[in-house]
Amino acid sequence: MDHTIVEQIERRRASIIGFLAGLVRAESTNPPGDTRKVADLIAARLRGSSVDFQILSEELRKPNVIARLGSGHPDLLFTSHMDTVPVGNLKAWRHEPFGAEIVGTRMHGRGAADAKASLAGMVAAVEALGTVLPLRGTLTLTAVSDEEVGGVKGTEYLVDRGLLHPDHVVVGEITGNRLATAEKGVLWLRITTHGRAAHGSTPWEGSNAISAMLRVLGAIEARIGGPLGTLAHPLTPPPSLSIGTIRGGVATNVVPDWCEATIDRRTLPNETIPEAVAQMERVIADLQRADPQLQADVEVIQSGPPIETSPQSPIVQAAQAVARELQLPSDPVGYHQASDGRFFAERGIPTILFGPGDPELAHTVNESVDVNEVVTAAKFYALLAFRMLSEQS
Ligand SMILES: [Zn+2]
Question: How far apart are the CA of 93 and the centre of ligand 1, in A?
Answer without folding.
Answer: 20
